[in-house]
Amino acid sequence: MMLRSVIAPLRASARAIYAHAGGPSAAPAGFRALHASSARLRKHREAAEEIDEFDEPETSDDLFDLSTPAPTSDRADLRTAILSRITEIASLPPLERKHAIAELRVGELRRVVSLSSPDELDGLRQVFRTWRVLGMRVTNKTADETVGRCCNLGRPDLALELSEDRLQYGLPPLSPAAQTKLHHSLLSTTSTALPTLSPEQKVSPTLALLRLALLQRSGASPEDIAAGSLLQRLRRPAKESTAAPEWRENALGLLEQAGGVWAEEGRKVQLQQDGGA
């Protein structure tokens, strides 16, 4: 009985304080602002999750599929929604940004790349910079998708810039398939640029021939070929693009036209390819 007489006044006081505060709908102003911001971000996130095909593992063929249709209005709207979400998170105060980043999926950057039209490619520079500001990593899939998308839309120069400047854009080293795609696309233009190969990069016969052809075009001397190191690193991939035989033939033809040591080194690579066939 004594315990009940003590608790009853406490309950009455609690009810009075609760009623004065305005019931369950009352919340501090800061909390309401955070809730509104979270609601906007949630809306963008729900829109960004409408398409999931970019989360599926890809093969070396479907990664750079030339049959990808032009963006429809729905795809353009989805790209805009994802970009708005990324940009809004970057503009949040530090504490709110930290919570929002925790809900940001790394695959969303890849979606932006995959949904980009030719006119939107140059804007990828700023997208990658913003991604870096958020402290988000660029996945291997996203790096390869970026190179493939740029090359398929006729911008191997941009693919080279984004993949080479890791300080600004944060792309990891490219896969052998993406490197081969980039070399072929550069060789298909008048470019004399030469992508950087990491010491650990696996070199297929296709990539070696394309690289030799680019070296010859860039005006490198026979002493600068370093073809021996290419030959030592040759590895036949388990799977290549269906276009690889044609790419090898074209590159070998250019080396044969150049003659001399270029043709000789090209034949060495081709022998490695034929020997492992």
* Estimated structural class: mainly alpha
End-to-end CA span: 94 Å
Give the biggest beta sheet: none
Mean pLDDT comes to 80
Pattern of helices and strands: HHHHHHHHHHHHHH
Number of strand elements: 0
Oligomeric composition of the shown chains: single chain
Tag the structure with descriptive keywords.
277 residues, mainly alpha, 0% strand
3D structure, described in words:
The protein is mostly helical and about 280 residues long. Residues about 1-35 and about 45-70 have low confidence and may be disordered. The protein has a domain at about 175-275. The protein has helices at about 1-20, 30-50, 75-90, 95-100, 105-115, 125-135, 140-150, 155-165, 165-170, 175-185, 205-215, 225-230, 245-260, 260-275.
Short description:
The chain has helices spanning 2-21, 29-48, 73-91, 94-102, 107-114, 124-133, 140-152, 156-164, 166-169, 176-187, 205-217, 227-232, 244-258, 260-276.
Task: Please specify the SSE layout and strand pairing.
Layout: H1 2-21, H2 29-48, H3 73-91, H4 94-102, H5 107-114, H6 124-133, H7 140-152, H8 156-164, H9 166-169, H10 176-187, H11 205-217, H12 227-232, H13 244-258, H14 260-276
Region (Disordered): 45-71
Biased composition (Acidic residues): 49-64
